[in-house]
Amino acid sequence: MSQSVGNLAQFFRSNIVAATFGVVAISIPITAPVCAHPTFSVIHDFTGGADGGGPVDAPVADGKHRFIGATFVGGTKGYGLVYRLVHGTSGWQVKPIYNIKDKDGGQLYWGVTLAGGYIYANTSAICVEGSACGTVLQIKGSHSVIIHTYILGEDNSPIGNLVLDGAGNVFGATYPDLNNPNSRGSIIELSYSRGSWKEKILYSFQGKTDGGTPESGPILDAAGNLYGTLSLGGADGYGTVYELSPGKSGWKYKLLYTFTGGNDGGLPFAGLIFDPAGNLYGSTFEYGKYGGGTVFELSPSQGVWNFSLLASLTGINGPAAPLAMDSKGTIYGATYYDGAYGDGSVFRLTPSLKGWKYKDLHDFTGGADGDNGDGVVLDAHDNLYGDAGGGAYGQGVIYKITR
């Protein structure tokens, strides 16, 4: 299967692990794929030129009925750009906000984070021992500031999206140094003090029972605790879900779940999301009853997190980007190699008294509709938006699925 520019960033991420190396409550078999939902439409075809190419993760809502996203190629300098997706009288338009330049230190392989009127994003670059491996950019309008440079052999290269707390501290994940067999990645914090940004490594993963090799960034709860997934390690070697909690003596690691590679799935690439009650939801990239990964829930109860299997996915590779949840608790996601044509799919999981009901919303054909689904996001009316590779120009698409 050929690999279009539009999904090279996702392919890069999903193949890093390949290069380096439960308790089941409800299992919902997924039967033969259904026809594509009639309300699916491509609302933008990236050309690889001024509008960018290779969209990464889902765009994020900016609170003004618009979305902000990123591409890892194209733009005026060829290094990708940050764009605004807006709807006008002539339909949907992608309007560049900031073009990545050579001095910015790398390309945007992950999505953006909005906080305090700024856009934050990780860039990544090919590096050798002791050299720069990417940066953290703080962007406002057409200007950017590098607030941190990653160095191989120190904190190594970035992975996934960033997250900020109410005080403006920035948290993210770093990938292992592949030249160091003891390196398994870490979680970092960037804090602004006295005119400069300072980095602190909060926890370095050991790759043992704690897990290792993050493929996504952490998320924060209201109390300032961090949560995330690790694609490898754990008791059975198939990854873990972790919590990091701040304390007077430093950050404390807690193992929430370790994957077995059985019906619960394995290799969780995507990050997590919360529901309003504080339950965690996520997915695995592989394994599970039908081989295409799983969707799961972790619910806290008296200091213990209980694992529930919500769905078993078919195909080869499941979601590689976080799920989305609407106001009614319905879950949405996109898979990488699932679907009737093996080019990925978009699905919905609806809660009911009889468990979670799965519905296939669209199967990517690898043609004009795109391929290899990435992240998804909802608007205020619960319409679904997402991006994928391929498309008319082979540079990726943004699509919309109405209710």
Q: What does this protein look like?
A:
The chain is an all-beta fold and 403 residues long. It is built from two helices and 28 strands. 3% of the residues lie in helices and 45% in strands. The protein has a four-stranded antiparallel β-sheet, with no helix packed on it. A four-stranded antiparallel β-sheet has the order 2-3-4-5, with helices on one face. A four-stranded antiparallel β-sheet has the order 6-7-8-9, with no helix packed on it.
Helix/strand order, N-terminal first: HHEEEEEEEEEEEEEEEEEEEEEEEEEEEE
Give the integer mean of the pLDDT values. 91
> Which residues form runs of ≥5 with pLDDT under 50?
11-37
Strand order of the largest sheet: 1-28-27-26
Structural class: mainly beta
Q: What descriptors fit this protein?
A:
4-stranded antiparallel β-sheet, 2 helices, 28 strands, single chain, about 400 residues, mainly beta
Please describe the topology of this protein.
Elements: H1 8-14, H2 16-20, E1 40-45, E2 53-61, E3 67-73, E4 81-88, E5 91-99, E6 112-115, E7 118-124, E8 132-140, E9 143-151, E10 158-164, E11 170-174, E12 186-193, E13 196-204, E14 219-220, E15 226-230, E16 240-247, E17 250-258, E18 273-274, E19 280-283, E20 294-301, E21 304-312, E22 324-325, E23 331-335, E24 345-352, E25 355-363, E26 376-378, E27 384-388, E28 397-401
Antiparallel strand pairs: 1-28, 2-3, 3-4, 4-5, 6-7, 7-8, 8-9, 10-11, 11-12, 12-13, 14-15, 15-16, 16-17, 18-19, 19-20, 20-21, 22-23, 23-24, 24-25, 26-27, 27-28
